[in-house]
Design goal:
With about 200 residues, the protein is mainly α. It has one domain. About 80% of the residues lie in helices and about 0% in strands. Helix 2 runs antiparallel to helix 3, helix 4 runs antiparallel to helix 5 and helix 6 packs antiparallel against helix 7. It is globular and about 55 Å long.
Amino acid sequence: MSISLWIPESVGAILTVWCVYLATQNKIINWPISILASIVYFYVFYQNHFFSDAYLQLVFVLFQLYGWWFWSKLNPSKQLQQISKIDRKSRLFLAVISVLLYGIWLHFYKIINPTARIPEIDSLTTIISLTALYMQAQRWIENWIIWVIVDIIYVPMYISGEQYITAFLYGFLAIMAIYGHKEWQKQLTLYHSSNKA
């Protein structure tokens, strides 16, 4: 990877750690910070031919705007949006949709970007990340488990592209996702305890 990408990659990494920490604390400000991180990483990934991850950052921005609104006072049903567990029907639906999207995206991605690095893995991480982000916006606690899985997959992918800062970042994000799951579990338990009282 070009040395000129080290600075934006570092900035993107710092913003990403910050927004994930804020998300573990269930803070709405995580969304605008994550939008900034996505914009920076779009540039980094595109320049390094991880095109699917670059496009993913643009989709991330749309999801992040949705998450920002969903968590905000502008959402008329905000008071109903507490941390919860995903129901079986939604879990099955997301699994089926994710598999279908992966097959479709991988097919077109190879046609659109013939010079892409490891398109099968790049496409897979894109779809898994979108699934996790949607689950996070819905405040389903299992989103953190999906983030752990995809973060672990990302590490060797970025090492292969010589994005060592980002590879280290995603290893760290996997640990933060475990922490996020524990923090949300505490809040979920507290919420159920207060409702029973």
